């Protein structure tokens, strides 16, 4: 495959950072009781969502993070987090807005991560992996900071799967000759639609069956089972 020439436009990267900041702040603002955050805590979560995906993407690519080479990334993330705090008081159905923004954000970071990986000559499968990590990285950092169960590690509504579908579309489309910019835009749409439909209709992957380690050990012989003596 011919190496695509692609550079993420600054305005597009900042748009993803801004939307992530708004979504993260709105998410954090919705917590009540013991997990209620002050303005600084909400701002930190918003900034982490806005900048986390780009940081993870560039680290995996072995590049100096773009978010640390231009002052507008942090300014945009902080401003967007403030906007998210203000908007949270205007929405009576906050969860719907969060889900839609979340779907768009993971689509954008997934597409940007995969496209940039391809532009650096990364093979298709690792490029998809980098894109998915960039898409879900911000939410993983958010959950860690807030002491929440990591969303993508539990039964849910196709979070990483939606990102993977969009990223896979991009590498296939580029491989068959579609311009990478168009492929990235369509990839964002694919991820967004899958994520929203999954949440709307409560679609998720099958839950794992409960497996007892002692039973597995006995069946496979991997671990010696000591029988109690009479």
Q: What does this entry look like structurally?
A:
The protein is mostly helical and 230 residues long. It is 67% helix and 0% strand. The protein has helices at residues 10-29, 39-60, 71-88, 94-119, 124-146, 159-175, 180-200, 213-220. The model has no long low-confidence stretch (mean pLDDT 83). Residues 10-87, 100-173 form the Glycine transporter domain.
Could you give the order of the helices and strands? HHHHHHHH
How would you state the average pLDDT, rounded? 83
Secondary structure tally, helices: 8
The Cα radius of gyration reads 20 Å
The percent range for strand residues is: under 5%
The N- and C-terminal alpha carbons lie at a distance of 68 Å
Low-confidence region ranges = none
Shape assignment: globular
Structural class: mainly alpha
Largest sheet: none
Helix share, percent: 55-70%
Tally of strands: 0
């Amino acid at each position: 495959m011919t190496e695509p020439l692609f550079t993420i436009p600054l305005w597009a990267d900042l748009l993803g950072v801004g939307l992530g900041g708004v979504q993260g702040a709105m998410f954090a603002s919705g917590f009540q009781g013991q997990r209620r955050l002050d303005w600084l805590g909400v701002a930190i979560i918003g900034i982490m969502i806005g900048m986390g995906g780009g940081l993870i993407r560039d680290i995996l690519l072995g590049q100096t993070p773009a978010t640390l080479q231009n002052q507008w990334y942090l300014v945009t993330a902080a401003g967007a987090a403030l906007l998210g705090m203000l908007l949270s008081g205007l929405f009576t159905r906050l969860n719907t807005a969060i889900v839609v923004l979340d779907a768009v954000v993971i689509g954008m970071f997934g597409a940007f991560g995969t496209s940039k990986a391809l532009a650096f000559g990364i093979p298709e499968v690792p490029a998809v992996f980098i894109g998915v990590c960039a898409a879900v990285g911000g939410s993983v950092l958010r959950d860690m900071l807030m002491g929440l169960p990591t969303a993508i590690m539990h039964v849910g509504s196709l979070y990483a799967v939606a990102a993977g579908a969009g990223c896979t579309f991009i590498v296939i489309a580029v491989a068959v000759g579609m311009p990478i910019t168009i492929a990235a835009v369509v990839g964002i749409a694919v991820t967004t639609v899958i994520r929203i439909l999954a949440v709307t209709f409560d679609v998720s992957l099958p839950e794992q069956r409960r497996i007892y380690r002692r039973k597995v050990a006995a069946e496979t012989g991997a671990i010696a089972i000591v029988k109690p003596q009479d």
